[in-house]
Structure formats: structure tokens, C-alpha cells
Amino acid sequence: MLILIGAAVVLGSTLTGFMLAGGHPLVLLQVSEFVTILGVTTGVVVIASPSHVLKEVLHKVIHAITGKSAGEKEFTDVLKLLYEIFMVGRRNGLIALEEHVMDPKKSAIFQRYPSVTGNHERLAFICSGLKPVIDGKIKPDQLEDLMNAELDAKAAESEHPIHILQLAGDSLPGIGIVAAVLGIINTMASISEGPAKVGEHVAAALTGTLLGIFIAYGFINPLANRVKFNNASEEQFLKCIMQAVAGFAKGLAPLTAVEVARRSLDSNVQPSAEGLEATLKALGGK
Q1: What gap in Å lies between CA 193 and CA 267, rounded to an integer?
Q2: What are the pLDDT digits (tens) for 26-56?
Q3: Phi, psi torsion values for 272, nearest 5 degrees
Q4: 210 with 28: CB under 8 angstroms?
Q5: With the C-alpha atoms ordered 86, 101, 81, 133, is the resulting torsion angle positive or negative?
Q6: Residue 251 in 3-state DSSP?
Q7: Which helix (H) or strand (E) element contains residue 246?
Q8: DSSP-assigned letter for residue 270
Q9: pLDDT given for residue 40 in this prediction
Q10: What Å distances lie between residue 104 and 73, 113, 143, 167, CA to CA?
Q11: The pLDDT value given to residue 286
Q12: pTM higher than 0.70 for the full model?
């Protein structure tokens, strides 16, 4: 919602300032300039991106516009889920976790937390972190390194859409100049039509330069930054899971393992220690 408000402010303030200076908004509606600039930018993005990155760019942009990053409720849910899983492992042995981890869609514990099960990446990260603990294939102090390696790979992959958006933003001013030069060529070809006609062509050409810069700095670059913030939020979510799972694997009590994870969170999404502890103890009593 905020991103739409911001876009409206950018567009509204620009048009208002232009009109206050005596300009007419319809002068800016040069279809040929829009076609050139948006078409060339789309081509640049397609040339620069493998198909899977193009899909990810589209997904990230849609999520940035319509979605929202994880908040305190989502972090509280994952901490509650992990606590319940850890309690099962503490009471009944690690082998008791197998039925939950191997098929989380049928697990009564997992199904209580749709904010986790509804996100494939979060769910897979929890399960992939717990499976080595259940199997006993690695030592507990090695688990954190394993999960960190996975996190690093995910972080690098999530940067690809940002790089493409930044490439588009950096290219747009130059593409706007190209559109303007094309407009000037048309102007020179019609110079015999008189000053009024030449003025119209020059105005249309200058609109190309304006649009390239305006779209780059008013929309594309800020959008890339919003995607970066969303990625950081998701990375923090996965790091929270890693802290809890690694702590439990090293022998920390379930409540302590979850508390370590809670303390790793930013203050704006971090549940209070007292409130979370009371919630978790109530769960433990069920």
C-alpha cells in the first residue's frame, strides 16, 4: 500500500509543479516516446536476464507492490512452531520428529501455523535444517555451518532481480536520450513546416529525455530498493529459524533455543520476551 502512495505522490507532485508553471499535462503524453523508452528498456532486461531471473523479477515486483514483509505475528508464529517441535523432540526423542519433518503437510503441529506452511521456502528451510538432526548424519556444531551455506546461496540468488532492476534504472536516462535524438531527427526532417511545427517536435523529443530520467529515479530505482528491503526481511526470517534449530541441536532447552532466535530479530518485528515466554509456556502445557 505504501508503495502505491509513494508512486501517487511522485506522479502527482510532478504534474502539479508542471501545471503551476503553466504547462499542460497532455503535452507530456507523447505515445511514440513511451513506446520507444518502455520497449527498449524491456528489451534490455530480456537481453540481460535468463528466463528464471525474468520470472523472479516479475514475482519480486508484484510482491513489492501488493505484498508485505513478515511482521511480528509471522515471527511469533515461527517461534511458536519451533518451540512445539523442539518440545516433541525433547520429550519423545528426536526420532519422534520424523513424522512431522518428513511430511509437514500432514503434521498437526505445522498445520497450526499457515504463515509458515504457506511459504514453501520457509517450510523447506525448517525441514532441511531438522533432517540432519534427526538422522544424526552431522555433529550438532556442524549444523550451523551447513545452514549458513544454504543461507548464503539463497541471499546471492535473491540479489539477481535487484541487479536487473538497477540495470533498467541506470539504462533509462540513456534510453531517454536515444528517444530524444530520434525526436530531433524527426524535427530536422520537418524544419520546412514552420516554427510552430518545429516547436511541437522539439517538445516531443524533450519529453523522451524527461521520461527516461523520471521513470528511472521516480519508480525503478526506488522499486529496486524496496525489493532489497523485502529480501532482507526474508533473510532475517530464515536466520531466525537457523538460530533456533542450531541452538536446539547443540543441546539448548527449547525455550532457550527460541529465545536466542528472538534476540536475533530487529526491534520492529521482535516479540517481547515476557509475552513470548508466557505464550510458549502455555503451549508447553497443552
Answers
A1: 66
A2: 888 888 888 999 999 999 999 999 999 999 9
A3: -70, 150
A4: yes
A5: positive
A6: coil
A7: helix 221-249
A8: P
A9: 94
A10: 21, 11, 21, 40
A11: 47
A12: yes
